[in-house]
Amino acid sequence: MEKEGNITKKADEFLQIFKKGEEFTKELLKENERLRFRIAQLEETVEQSHNEERIKLYEERIKMLEEEHNSLLEKYRQVEEENKDFASKYVEVEAENNNLANLYVASYQLHSTLDFNEVLRIVLEIIINLIGAEEFAIFLMDDKTNELIPVTSEGLPLHDIPRIKIGEGIVGTVAKEGEGYFSEDIANASEIDARNPLVCIPLKIKEHVIGVISIYTLFVQKTTFSNVDYELFNLLAGHAATAIFSSKLYTQSERKLTTIQSFLDLLKEKPKR
User: Which of 38, 45, 113, 239 is deepest in the core (most CB within 10 A)?
Assistant: First the structure.
């Protein structure tokens, strides 16, 4: 009996040890599961941290690329503006070159002849083609009567244009003072008044006024005159005056020489018997 009791006691002790082992195993499995869960959490945290770092890195790269993009756009706009500016300047330079060529041709034409009527015709062409005047007249000074006499016109009958006294109206004032007149309201031309044009340019040789160019209407409606227009006005004020004055003197001298020659020819003729 005692022996069986010992066996039972040992069995109980073994069972207790087994139960403890079982409990320990369960606790170990639980701890293992908890550790695995913790590892998974840590891995997820690390992965999330890595993702956040990547996102932050991507955001920084995107921001940097956006800044580069904006910088390139700004440079593109600047280059585009520069190109527009260069194109505009090129057009201006080209127009200026054309105008200089026209001025040169006009100046050359003015001094290419000493025929008075031919010079007047050239001046008319310059005023029509380069300035764009539609109705205008050229007056020359008559020192004997102290009046401005119309010698040629365009768009207006010459016989309808009156003689103008020095100091009378805009035309007479320009002839008296030797300073050009330019209307501030050239776009709205009113009824034509021979004494009060839109533009009046003195024909001057040094400080001596020999006549005026009086412009009443323009082909192209303008709101203001350009620098090229003023260059043309200056050309007409000087070169046209010289050409007209020289051709007039030459024509008068030619007439006198013809008259003298005719008189000499009469004197040389032998009297008839």
Answer: 239
Query: Measuring CA to CA, how many Å separate 95 from each of 89, 223, 229, 231, 242?
Result: 10, 19, 12, 13, 27
Burial class (CB in 10 A: 0-12, 13-18, 19+), 233: buried
The DSSP line for 236-258 is IIIIIHHHHHHHHHHHHHHHHHH
Separation of alpha carbons 125 and 102, rounded Å: 12
Residue-wise pLDDT for 82-97, tens only, equals 888 878 887 877 777 7
- CA pair distance 78, 74, nearest whole angstrom: 6
Q: Quick one: CA dihedral 99, 100, 103, 104, positive or negative? A: negative
**What are the C-alpha distances in Å from 184 to residues 189, 198, 223, 235?**
11, 8, 8, 21
Task: Tell me the per-residue pLDDT of 110-122, one tens digit each, with 9 for 90 and over.
Answer: 778 888 888 889 8
> Is 273's pLDDT higher than 70?
no
Q: Which tokens belong to 205?
A: 């040789």
Show the DSSP H helices in the chain as ranges.
2-110, 116-126, 169-177, 227-235, 241-268
